[in-house]
Description:
Elements: H1 2-8, H2 18-36, H3 40-44, H4 56-64, H5 72-93, H6 95-116, H7 126-137, H8 148-167, H9 174-195
Amino acid sequence: MARREMQKRVIKLQFNAPVILLFTLCALGALVANYFTRGEANARFFSVYGFRPDQFLWYVRLLGHVLGHTGWEHYLGNMVLLLVVGPPLEEKYGSWTMLWCILFTAVVSGLVHCFWDPSTALLGASGIVFMLIMLSSLAGMRGGAIPITMILVGVIYLGGELVAAFTGDDSVSRLTHIIGGLCGTFLGFFLARGRR
C-alpha cells in the first residue's frame, strides 16, 4: 500500500519548450564562458559590431550576439521574461517556427545595429524578448482584426523605449528593443496570415 502511494507522488518534469529552454542554457553557457575568458568570449563570439561580411566570425557574431550578456543581472533580466513569454508561444506555433523567429530577429537587429552604430558592440537577448512580447500580443488575433492588447503593448512598451531613447543616457540599446518589437509585430501578422 505504501509503495503504491509513493509511486503516485513521483514528480514528473516536462520538457515543454525545447527551443526556449535551449536558448536559455546557451545564453548561460555564453555568460560562463565570458566570465572565464575575462570578456574575450563576448568580444569574439557573443557581440556584434562593425560591418565585416568578409570575416567568418562576423556571421557567428551576427547570430551569437543574442546569447551574450554583460553579467548575471543582465542575463536574469532577459531570461525571466523569455521563460515567461516564450513557452506558450512555442507551444502555440511550434519549435521550428520559434527557432526561425529568434534567428530572424537576431539577424535583423544585428544588421540594423551594424549600419546604425558600427563602432559599438551589441549583445543581449532583449531584442528577442521584445519580439516575443509583441508576438504574444498578436497570438490571439482572429479574423484579421488587430487586438487592442497589441496596440496597448505597442504604445506602452515601444512608446516607452522611444521616449527613453531620446531622454536616457544609459548603455541600453533602445534601438534593439524597438527593432525586436517591430520584428515581433511583423512575425505576428505573418504567422496569423499563414494560419488563415
